[in-house]
């Protein structure tokens, strides 16, 4: 839009007119990361797919889940490739019923249970997806203003990705690189309005902006 207007007559030369959709960018960041670690979670996905394939299999799983758990809190849900949050929900559910799936493996000859290494990796992935899931849920909220929450949350994501770069797991490190590259493409420079929204929020103000920016981007990039 700014290219079609006389920017000299616009506030800050029209730089405030264009803003990327935060939810879309989050989706792109996570998608790039999941592309790297897709193979590592395949056996967990296959086990959920097997139990979700027919009502009879799911009923058998549910009975065993109720036998070994006081509460059957949630159904196993198979993920959808076009929705990364469904992958998080799938892994979270499978991990919750890890003991049940392992016992089911003894009784169901056609069922292939994930290995202990698979479970450990699934936990690693789930913990990291939770960061993005929580941020997306927060920014998608409707009963409250979200503009002032954007900047601290985005800084938190950047800080988390930087920590993952030091992971002992090679796949997690590769995942963090892909996520970082996509993050830097869109959010190296955060939109000024989002920073201003944080400052004018009585719960945040300038100290929140400085703390968030300094911890994730480095104090050397802060102007006095």
Give a topology summary.
Blueprint: H1 22-37, H2 42-52, H3 55-68, H4 84-96, H5 98-107, H6 116-139, H7 147-164, H8 170-187, H9 192-200, H10 205-217
Helix pairs in contact: 1-6, 1-8, 3-5, 4-6, 6-7, 7-8, 7-9, 7-10, 9-10
List keywords for this structure.
hAT-like transposase RNase-H fold domain-containing protein, 2 domains, RNaseH-like_sf, DNA binding, 224 residues
What does the overall shape look like?
A: elongated
**Helix/strand structural class:** mainly alpha
From N to C, what is the helix and strand string? HHHHHHHHHH
Q: Helical region count?
A: 10
Helix content: 55-70%
Major sheet summary line: none
Please tell me the total number of domains: 2
- How big is the Rg? 22 Å
Overall mean pLDDT: 79
Strand content: under 5%
Q: Can you summarize this structure?
A:
Helices cover 65% and strands 0% of the residues.
């Amino acid at each position: 839009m700014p290219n079609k207007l006389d920017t000299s007559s616009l506030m800050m030369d029209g730089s405030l007119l264009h803003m990327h959709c935060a939810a879309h960018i989050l989706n792109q960041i996570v998608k790039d990361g999941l592309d790297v670690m897709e193979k590592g979670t395949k056996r967990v996905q296959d086990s959920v797919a097997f139990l979700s394939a027919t009502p009879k299999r799911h009923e058998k799983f549910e009975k065993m889940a109720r036998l070994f758990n006081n509460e059957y809190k949630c159904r196993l849900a198979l993920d959808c490739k076009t929705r990364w949050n469904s992958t998080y929900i799938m892994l979270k559910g499978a991990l919750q019923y890890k003991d049940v799936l392992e016992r089911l493996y003894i009784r169901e000859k056609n069922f292939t249970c994930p290995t202990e290494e698979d479970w450990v990796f699934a936990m690693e992935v789930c913990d990291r997806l939770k960061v993005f899931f929580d941020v997306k849920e927060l920014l998608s909220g409707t009963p409250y203003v979200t503009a002032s929450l954007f900047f601290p949350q985005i800084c938190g994501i950047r800080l988390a990705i930087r920590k993952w770069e030091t992971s002992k797991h090679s796949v997690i490190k590769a995942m963090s690189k892909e996520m970082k590259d996509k993050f830097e493409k869109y959010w190296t420079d955060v939109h000024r309005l989002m920073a201003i929204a944080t400052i004018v929020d009585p719960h945040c103000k300038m100290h929140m902006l400085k703390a968030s920016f300094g911890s994730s981007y480095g104090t050397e990039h802060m102007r006095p």
